[in-house]
Write a structure and sequence with these properties.
The chain is mostly helical. It has two domains: about 10-400, Sodium/glucose cotransporter; about 405-494, no CATH class. It is built from 21 helices and no strands. Keywords: Cell membrane, Ion transport, Membrane, Sodium, Sodium transport, Transmembrane, Transmembrane helix, Transport. It comes from Vibrio marisflavi CECT 7928.
Amino acid sequence: MEAHSFGALNYVALIVYLAAIMAVGVYFAKRQKSSDDYFKAGGRIPGWAAGISVFATTLSSITFMSIPAKAYTGDWTFLVGQYMAIAVLPVVFWFYIPFFRKLNLTSVYEYLERRFDVKMRLFGSISFMLFHIGRISIIIYLTALALMPFVDISPLTIVFLIGVLCIVYTFMGGIEGVIWTDVIQGIMLSIAAILIFTMICFNVDGGMFKIFSFAAEHDKYFPADKFAWSWTDSTVPVLCIGFFFAALQQFTASQDVVQRYIVTDNIEETKKALITNAKLVACVPIFFFAVGTALYVYYIQNPELLPADFNTGGILPFYVISQMPAGIAGIIIAAVFAASQSSISSSLNSISACFTSDIYEKLSDNPSSEQKLKVGRLLTVIAGVLGVCASTYLIYSNESEIWDAFNSLLGLMGGPMTGLFMLGIFVKRANALGALFGVVASVVTVVCLRQFTDLNFFFYGVFGTIVVVIVGYIMSLFSAQPKSQHTVELTVGR
C-alpha cells in the first residue's frame, strides 16, 4: 500500500505539538537545581496533574492503536482489563501510599535493601532498568511500524521525532517537565479518542445509534462464551485476574508509577492523583473500544474504501490519514506521538532515578545533590540513546511478533517484583534468605510455564507473585527472624 501524502496542514499540527512539548521542557529546566528537583519535583506537583501523568504513562501509543484494532476485529472483552487499574486502588490507598510516602524514597527499590539486603535492591532496580530500555525501543519501533504504511515520513524521522526529542525534554525538565508534558499528552489522547469517534458517527449511515445497535446484533460487546473459565484463552475471568496482578505490579512495584507518589506535597494530593487516574480509566478506554466498533460499521458500509488484504492492525491510522480532514489528521497523529512520548519520558526519568539512587550512590563516596543531578541527566541520555538505537535495529531487521513476546516477559519480571514487595511489606517473618529463594523459585516457575505449557501469559504474573510469597515465607522459617524493631518500620500491620 502506498503511503498517503501527509500534507502541509498535518505537518503544521505535528510541528506545533512537538514545539509545545519542547517548550515545556525548556521552561522547567531552570527549576532543576538538585537531584530532588529532578526526581521528586520538590513536591510541587498538584494531585490532578500527577493523576493525568499516571494515566498517560500507562497508556502507550501501542495501546492507543491496538485497542481500536482489537475492537474492530473482535469484541470489547479486553475492556474489563482496563478497570482492574481501578480495582487495585483500595489496596494501594490503604497500604502502599502511606508506606512509600513515610519512607521518602527516591527509588522504590531502596526499600528492598532496607527490608532484605542489597542483592534484592539490585535485582529489582536492574530488572526495571533493562525492562524499560527494552520497552522504550519497542514502543518507538511499533509506533514507527504502524505509521510507516500510511504517512510519507521515513521511519528514521519518526524514530527521531519520538525518541530524540523525548530525550531532550526529559533531560532538561526532569520529572516536573515529564509530568506537565504528560498532562498535555494525556489530554490530547482523551480528546483524540472522543474526536475520532464523533467524526466516524457523522460518517456512518444511521449515526451513533446504528453503530451500537449493529454491534449488539453482531455480538461485538461481551459474547457469552467469553465468560467461561479457561487456562489458555483470554476470557473475562482470565483478563480480570491477569490485569489485576499487572495493575498491582504497576502501582506497587514499578518505579515509573510509584515515583508519582512522592512528587506531590502531601498524602491527600497523592490519593487525589490516583482518583484522577481512575476517573480517566473509567471513561477514556470506552471511547477507544467504541472507535474500533465504529470503524467496523463504517467499513462494512463502505467496503470499497478498504484495500484488499489490508492489515487491520493499522485500521486507526489508516482511517485518520485517508478520511479525516487535513489538520485534524495531523492532530490525531500528534496524539499518537504523544502516547509514545508520555510512556518513554517516564521510563527515562525512572531509569535515571534508579541508576543514580541504587547504583551511583552505592559506588560513590557521599555524592552531592548537584553530582547526582548530573549523573541523572547523563543516564537519561544514555538510556534514551540505547532505546533509540535498539528501535532503529528492529526497524532494519524487520522483526516480527516482538510485542507478544515482550508482553509475555512482563510476567517473568513483573510477577517476582510484585511478590517481593508483597512479601516484604506484609510478611513480618520474611527475611533476606526467604526473599532470595522466593525470587529464584518465581523466575524458574514462570520460565517453565512459558516453555512447557500452553498457559495464557496473563497467568505468568499471577503465579510469579504467589510463588515469591509462599516460598519466601517457608524458606524464611529456616533462618533467623528479623529484628522486631527492623520490621516495625518496614512492614504494615501489627
